[in-house]
Amino acid sequence: MNNKNICRLAIIPARGGSVRIKNKNIKIFCGKPIISYSIDSAKKSNLFKKIHVSTDSSKISRVVKNSNLKIDFLRPKLLSNNSTGLFKVCKFVFEKYLSLGEVYDEIWCILPCAPLINKNDLLAASKFLNKNKIKKPLMVISKFRTPIEWALTKLNNKKVKPLNFKNLLIRSQDLKEKYYDAGLFYVFTSKCFKKFDETTVAKNFFGFEISINKAVDIDTMEDWNLAELIYKGTKLIKN
User: Cα–Cα distances in Å, from 220 out to 4, 59, 119, 185, 223?
Assistant: First the structure.
């Protein structure tokens, strides 16, 4: 299938409640609501026939409309609590569009707090999928900055203990590089998404590697501040 002929749906899941950072999905990041960066990247990539922000929040809906994006339907409250899995939300959206007669070949889940990725990252991932003829799900991965074999556990405020003392004696260059889910975006074929089971997630995904400077998972204000510093620094370099 030619890349240009693939019909894609982008889902940006953005519920109203956020615990650690209040109103995180629409908090101002370097001059505009953080979700706007994900919306703009998706739009500028020209990859998607439909971009849908899945939300239960009227505040988020207003911000999305200001980005000239229509929300076809709101997320039900049943899928808007802390315990609801990301892929359960995306599956609801996918099945809702199916019921409306809209069929998509690929489903992309783009996180709302991913201001460090841009259209080029989305295009590169799409090219990677097409070139390698990947039919399994894709996740964005990045390298751990430090070998995970050197991990310590804190026993109290004064003492730490290595998880494996022998591993501390191994040089970093002698250890195989390890990766983590960067939490930026995921890609599924329609066929795969219909069968997708969250319990087998680790077995199913292919990895698309991205720079560690773009892989900031924003959960705390410390993460937020770091992402802003990186974003501002990138802008300065470009200018």
Answer: 38, 21, 25, 19, 5
